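Model: You mentioned two targets. I'll fold them one after the other.
Researcher: Yes, keep them separate.
Model: Target one:
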Amino acid sequence: LVVIQQRGLDHEQAYVESLVSKGVSIVNLSGIKNEDELVVETLKAMAMGVEVVVQGALRSDAWFGRPDILRRIETPSSLGEWSYEPYDCKLARETKAATILQLSHYAALIAIAQGYEPEQMYVVPYSEDFSVEAYRVLDFAAYYRAVRLRLEKAADENRHTYPEPNEHCDVCRWWPDCDHQWRKEDHLSLTAG
């Protein structure tokens, strides 16, 4: 898992370096760990019209997103004579539905931040030449909204949830919180065998 995560970070870094080599100006926010500060810095960079924002973050109500890349395009928005579209670097050679939903979520957050819905969203699959796959946001927007509404409804109906151990725990950012709760309560999953 650590090796795969590192390969993903290396792929993203290589793509960013390819942009730098083409003279694109970049603001890299990956060093900011506080989510509130990260959102503020992302919005500042977007307002300044930075060409590329790396590892920024956006928030709207309870929704949060951390796109790999926000890239400026010359389409007017509430920010000025420019706006942004999301890019996501993936190791997979074929784009999965989950990636499209993820990018749709980023596009929805970007739309709120800039007052203009991005027209395109992009996947940067692993390749030597960093060929980018473009997807039209509107082609997936209705499905994204339906999935989001179902998730919001399910979350509202199930306010009293419990962190059950599952196969996703290995990659989940909330694992330390869950593990702390399980240990405090001496959860049955901690019993050998």
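Model: Target two:
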Amino acid sequence: EISEEALKLQGTKQWDQAGKDANLLFPAVAEVFTEAIGFQMSEKQTPFLYQLMRRTLTDAGMSTYAAKNEYQRTRPFVINGKPTGTPEEEEGLRNDGSYPSGHTAIGWAWALILTEIVPEKTDAILKRGYEFGQNRIICNVHWQSDVDAGRTMGSATVARLHADADFAADLARAKIEARAMKTN
């Protein structure tokens, strides 16, 4: 499932972006959707949105672990012997199942939430969320079916979060913050 085309991207701008997208640490990860949403998220300027994204990272990422632990699918780089976009993470990834992709679940959940917060930017946000997942293939750490399943897990997580009153309150506050950022 790893295409030769994806492997040929090593050393390109897209390869570099894929490596950057692997970093899920705040505050750096808050920049992933900056261009798509049209403003910078930060703990200081958009505290509710920032916190919503942090909580969603945990919820969406953890949603994949029952399947990861059940299937323990071997990652592409272990099989094909090609470099990854995240060499510093290879040792840990060797023993962490690749199916479904937690990074993709997180990125897609963020994209879905951000389309609710900044609906006029839906196309750009969904494009960036899609690329965030596809970059896991470019990094040679996930198969296409891992990424596809990750999007399903991200969608399911967001659907479940909509039944949570705290999430709804945070989402409403984040929408207010986003409106304020767009008028500045």
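Researcher: Noted. Anything on target two?
Model: The chain has a mean pLDDT of 92.
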